[in-house]
Amino acid sequence: MNQKLANAKALYLEGIRDGNAREAVTKYTGSRYTQHSTGVRDGVEGFVEFFEPFIKRNPSRDIQIVRSFVDGQYVFIHAYQDINNGEAKWVTTDFFDTDSNDKIIEHWDVIAAYSDTTPSGHTTVDGETAIKDLDKTEENKAIVRQLIKDGLMRGGNPVNLPKYISSEKYIQHNKDVADGLENFQKLASMPNRPLNYEEIVLLVGQGNFVATLCKSNWNDGKVNQDNAQVDIFRLEDGKVVEHWDNIEPVPENDVNSGKF
Predict the structure, then answer these.
(1) Phi and psi at residue 130, to the nearest 5°
(2) Cα–Cα distance for residue pair 236/187, rounded to 1 Å
(3) Are the beta carbons of 206 and 4 closer than 8 angstroms?
(4) CB–CB of 258/39 below 8 Å?
(5) Mind listing the pLDDT tens digit for each residue in 155-184?
(6) Which tens digits make up the pLDDT trace of 72-105?
(7) How would residue 229 be classed by pLDDT, with cut points 50, 70 and 90?
(8) What HEC string does the chain produce?
(9) Rg (CA), the chain
(10) pTM over 0.90, yes/no
């Protein structure tokens, strides 16, 4: 296993699942640990002061890493968490930056509630996991970048979406949206659509998988909320064929440097 990926997984599994917060964060992080997770301060002590009480409050922690990949200095992890035997179930999407020694030096995440059903009968984490088409990594990253810029950002035109998303197969893991390009395009084409992407903060990929962290805004006339938005795309033959997402409000004031 790639050492960067091994370190990121170990921080999750040894530090949080197995309850060894201080040992893991000390072992797997570098000379700095800049933190963008809501409510967690920077550094080893910030991690420990947040997770040691969390571990004590939640004696049962089932954490499963569903998808993961490496892109240069970055690691991406898509995880499912069952806390206290179903008391809470979460989907976490994490980006890690690493140093020249493969140690973690920065972390971003978006956390949202897990759903075991979608309109088309999926869950918010099931689906394909196999990484392939490694020779197409950069091509697929470019396709996703253009998909967001041309179709989803404020000022973009949803008529462009079929350039990037397959009209024959589009598996959707959003808890409110059915499979098929036509269903997604209908939502994206709404007059004064409530969700608009503002900026791509991170875009990483390996082979047929690409993950993005974006600044987005939700404004439906009642709620105007800035969000951190993670999207995971699986591509085949130059088109997106499967999609997962996670969204979390951006706090007005946080104990670290913020979500981005």
Answers:
(1) -70, 130
(2) 23
(3) no
(4) no
(5) 889 999 999 999 999 999 999 999 999 999
(6) 999 999 999 999 999 999 999 999 999 999 999 9
(7) very high
(8) CCHHHHHHHHHHHHHHHCCCHHHHHHHHEEEEEEECCCCCCCHHHHHHHHHHHHHHHCCCEEEEEEEEEEECCEEEEEEEEEECCCCEEEEEEEEEEECCCCCEEEEEEEEEECCCCCCCCCCCCCCCCCCCCHHHHHHHHHHHHHHHHHHHECCCCHHHHHHCECCCCCEECCCCCCCCHHHHHHHHCCCCCCEEEEEEEEEEEECCEEEEEEEEEEECCCCEEEEEEEEEEEEECCEEEEEEEEEEECCCCCCCCCCC
(9) 18
(10) yes
Which residue, 193, 171, 189, is CA-closest to 242? 171
C-beta of residue 33 within 8 angstroms of C-beta of residue 25? yes
Rounded (5°) CA angle 107-83-27: 40
Domains of the chain, CATH where assigned: 3-113 (3.10.450.50), 134-249 (3.10.450.50)
Q: Which residue in 130, 108, 80, 101 sits closest to 7, CA to CA?
A: 101
